[in-house]
Specification:
Layout (H helix, E strand, L loop, with lengths): L8 H11 L2 H8 L7 H10 L2 E2 L14 E3 L2 E3 L3 E3 L12 H12 L3 E3 L7 H7 L4 E5 L5 H13 L4 E5 L9 H6 L9 H7 L3 H9 L19 H11 L7 H10 L3 E7 L2 H9 L4 E4 L13 H12 L4 E5 L5 H10 L3 E4 L1 H32 L13 E2 L14
Bound molecules: flavin mononucleotide.
């Protein structure tokens, strides 16, 4: 099956799973502990129903959104996802290209394989950069300098990785590559020959290009990855580092991973221009609530002072619509983008955008909301809104 034939994101997930060896697919799909986080995120969206309004002229529909002074053609972008070269060589640049062509943002991960400079050449006006705080703060300062020199306008600082998590699938699979891979894992990988050939043809493990200049001279991909792991997560990251990044970064600053209203207030006080309410797709704290469930309280605290966005669990246009109705200005995809690009490269990245765009468009039409501005809390229904059944006397 070709990616063009994928009907929905779930089709792309299945295609991604077929193409990748288990060790790589499990890194994308897996979360921590019992992996309840993804279920929680999905359940959060499903608590809401979308209320249609009929006999409205929806002949022309427009899903564009203006965010930080730039108009994007859809209210979603590709969020940051690390080590993507493992899933398909060059996949970050493929997402960047698809994002540019579709006029949506692409956020390069702080653990990317491609470099900021390479992505900026491909998508100069659509590239954002995500930063992880490092133990050696001068590396962060240099990454910010490079992102700014490359023309990046929006920086996303991720705050929800204070410690490395224990992802049980990765432990079982030996994902960290520090131990010898079990024969069963190697045998399973050999059943995905297209991936194996590409991996070997490109010289094995992909390099973290942004980090290579800070590791010891001549370090290979594994040594650079080990160096990155020794720096990130920074064990003692606090608000002080965020304030430093604010001072260093001349452009727009978004804080990713905020889940509490008081943290949102503090981020705004520290100079954040935007907040991405996120639980990292359930990959950090398994029992965390869904971002969609925390959103109203955060919105009440800071919604009039900053730009609020949302990610985690988005697989359908209706998830995006629900997020916008709750009050999010914009949304980001994590795994959905990875499924597409891993399954089918550039065409797969394009297919993700097409699918979600079409779903958004049709849902907006069905709901009598021709523009994103028409989507609001009045379009949502939950079981709390159940009206009592009235018993009428027989006539
Ligand atoms: C394989 C993978 C790698 C990720 N790497 C990063 C990263 O480097 N930086 C970051 O801020 N978030 C990272 N994330 C989290 C995503 O940006 C996003 O918050 C999350 O995937 C959203 O949930 P979803 O996958 O259900 O859409 C990663 C997620 C996945 C699945």
């Amino acid at each position: 099956m070709k990616v063009e034939q994928a009907v929905n994101i779930e089709d792309l997930r299945r295609m991604c799973q077929r193409r990748l060896p288990r060790i790589a697919y499990d890194y994308i799909e897996g979360s921590v502990d019992d992996e309840r986080g993804m279920v929680t995120n999905q359940a959060g969206f499903l608590r809401y129903r979308l209320l249609p309004r009929y006999l409205v002229d929806v002949g022309k529909r427009d899903q564009s959104v203006t965010l930080f002074g730039k108009t994007y053609s859809s209210p979603f972008g590709f969020g940051p996802t690390g080590t993507m070269g493992l899933f398909r060589r060059g996949s970050e640049l493929m997402l960047a290209k698809a994002a540019r062509e579709a006029n949506i943002p692409y956020v390069m991960s702080g653990a990317s394989n491609a470099s900021i400079e390479a992505a900026a050449r491909i998508a100069p006006d659509h590239l954002w950069y995500q930063l992880y705080s490092a133990s050696n703060q001068s590396i962060c300062a240099d990454l910010l300098r490079r992102a700014n020199d490359a023309g990046v306008k929006v920086l996303m600082v991720t705050v929800d990785v204070p410690v490395r998590t224990r992802r049980e699938r990765n432990i079982r699979n030996g994902f960290n590559f520090q131990h010898k891979l079990k024969p069963s894992i190697v045998a399973e990988a050999l059943m995905h020959p297209a991936w194996v050939i590409e991996y070997l043809r490109n010289g094995g493990a992909p390099m973290l290009d942004n980090w290579a200049p800070y590791a010891k001279p001549g370090a290979n991909a594994m040594e650079v990855a080990q160096f990155f792991n020794s720096e990130v997560p920074a064990p003692a990251q606090t608000w002080r580092e965020l304030e430093t990044f604010r001072k260093l970064w001349p452009g727009t600053l978004v804080v990713k991973g905020i889940m509490r209203p008081e943290d949102a207030e503090r981020a705004v006080a520290a100079g954040a221009d935007g907040i991405l309410v996120s639980n990292h797709g359930g990959r950090q704290l398994d029992r965390a609530p869904a971002p969609i469930d925390m959103f109203p309280a955060i919105d009440a605290a800071v919604g009039d002072k900053t730009t609020l966005m949302l990610d985690s669990g988005i697989r359908r246009g209706s998830d995006i619509i629900t997020s916008l109705c709750v009050g999010a200005k914009f949304t980001f995809l994590g795994r959905a983008g990875l499924y597409g690009v891993s399954a089918g490269g550039e065409a797969g990245a394009r297919r993700v955008i097409e699918i979600l765009r079409t779903e958004l468009d049709l849902n907006m039409g069905q709901m009598g909301c021709p523009t994103v501005a028409d989507l609001g809390p009045d379009c949502l229904w939950t079981e709390r809104d159940l009206a009592p059944v009235v018993r009428r006397p027989a006539v």
